[in-house]
C-alpha cells in the first residue's frame, strides 16, 4: 500500500485542482494522500468524496531564520481552527506584498510584467513564485520555468524577495494549537544539519525523510537523527501537479506504514 504525504494543489502553487489530484492519485495506485498547500487549507473544503482514497489534512507553513526559508508541514490539523485561519490569512497578505516587490524588481530590469497578470495565474488562494514564473514563460522571457528561478526569482537571484522573518517556534505553536503534528519538510535543503537539530529543539516533532531531494545517505542520516530524537518520520513527493522540476503524482511513493506510525503519534499527542 502506497501513499504520498506532500502534494500541492491549485489552492497554492500546484497545477491540479484537488479533484484532479485525487484522480491522478487513484490512477497511480495511492491509498492515501495529504493536501499540503502553502498557507492554505482551501483544498480541504473543495474536493469530491474520493472513495477508497484517504485524505490527510495538512498545510505547509513557512518560517525564516538565519536567512533560510524553513518549510513546516502540519499533519492532522483542525483546518477550521480560528487561530490557524488568522495566521494563514496574514501569510497570504504577505505573499501578495512579496509578489508585488518581485514584479517591481523585474520591471527595473526592463521586463514587462504586471501583478494583474500574475493574479490571473492564481487559481486558488495563494500567490507564489511559480505564478510569476508562468507569466514570464508565457511572455517568452524565459525558455522554461526552471530558468525563471535560475535567472530571476530563485533564492539570492536579482529579483528574489525573502519571506517574512517568522520564528519556527511560532509556526510550531500555530500547528500545535490546531491539534497538528509539526514536521520539517525536505531538511536537506537547509544545508545545515546542526540547524536542523536546533529546529528540533524548537518543537519540530518529525522529519520528512523520504522525498525527492534526499539521496540514500541523506535518508540514512535523517533516520538516525529521528531515532535519536524520538521523532516521527514522513515522506512525500512535494508534487506540484505538472509543474517541473517537481515529480508528478505517482512518481514518488512511500509505504503506508509511515502513515500508520503518524496516526499513532497523533493518538499519543
Task: Walk me through this protein's architecture.
The chain is an alpha/beta fold and 269 residues long. It has two domains: 2-81 and 174-267, TIM Barrel, CATH 3.20.20.140; 89-153, DNA polymerase, domain 1, CATH 1.10.150. 40% of the residues lie in helices and 17% in strands. It is built from nine helices and eight strands. The radius of gyration is 18 Å and the shape is globular. The two termini are 25 Å apart. The mean pLDDT is 95.
Global Rg:
18 Å
Assembly level: single chain
Q: What do the pLDDT scores average to?
A: 95
Structural class of the helices, strands and pairings? alpha/beta
CATH classification, class level of the largest domain: Alpha Beta
Please report which band the strand proportion falls in: under 5%, 5-15%, 15-25%, 25-35%, 35-45% or over 45%: 15-25%
Strand/helix succession? EHEEEHHHHHEHEHEEH
Number of helices: 9
Q: Largest sheet, order of strands side by side?
A: 7-6-5-4-3-2-1-8
Give the CATH architecture of the largest domain. Alpha-Beta Barrel
C-alpha end-to-end distance: 25 Å
Principal-axes shape call:
globular
| Beta strand count | 8
Amino acid at each position: 500500500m502506497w501513499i504520498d504525504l506532500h502534494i500541492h494543489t491549485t489552492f497554492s502553487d500546484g497545477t491540479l485542482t484537488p479533484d484532479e489530484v485525487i484522480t491522478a492519485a487513484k490512477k497511480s495506485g495511492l491509498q492515501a494522500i495529504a493536501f499540503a498547500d502553502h498557507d492554505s487549507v482551501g483544498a480541504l473544503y473543495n474536493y469530491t468524496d474520493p472513495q477508497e482514497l484517504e485524505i490527510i489534512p495538512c498545510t505547509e507553513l513557512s518560517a525564516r531564520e538565519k536567512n533560510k526559508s524553513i518549510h513546516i508541514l502540519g499533519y492532522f490539523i483542525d483546518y477550521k481552527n480560528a487561530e490557524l485561519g488568522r495566521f494563514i490569512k496574514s501569510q497570504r497578505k504577505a505573499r501578495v506584498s512579496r509578489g508585488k516587490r518581485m514584479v517591481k524588481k523585474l520591471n527595473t530590469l526592463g521586463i514587462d510584467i504586471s501583478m494583474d497578470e500574475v493574479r490571473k495565474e492564481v487559481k486558488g488562494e495563494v500567490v507564489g513564485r511559480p505564478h510569476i514564473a508562468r507569466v514570464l514563460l508565457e511572455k517568452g522571457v524565459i525558455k522554461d520555468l526552471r530558468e525563471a528561478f535560475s535567472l530571476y526569482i530563485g533564492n539570492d537571484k536579482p529579483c528574489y524577495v525573502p519571506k517574512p522573518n517568522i520564528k519556527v517556534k511560532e509556526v510550531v505553536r500555530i500547528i500545535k494549537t490546531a491539534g497538528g503534528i509539526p514536521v520539517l519538510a525536505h531538511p536537506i535543503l537547509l544545508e545545515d544539519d546542526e540547524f536542523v537539530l536546533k529546529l528540533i529543539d524548537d518543537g519540530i516533532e518529525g522529519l520528512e525523510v523520504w522525498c525527492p531531494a534526499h539521496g540514500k545517505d541523506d535518508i540514512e542520516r535523517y533516520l538516525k537523527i529521528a531515532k535519536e530524537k524520538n521523532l516521527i518520520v514522513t515522506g512525500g513527493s512535494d508534487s506540484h501537479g505538472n509543474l517541473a522540476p517537481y515529480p508528478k503524482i505517482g512518481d514518488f511513493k512511500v509505504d503506508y506504514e509511515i502513515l500508520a506510525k503518524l496516526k499513532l503519534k497523533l493518538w499519543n499527542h
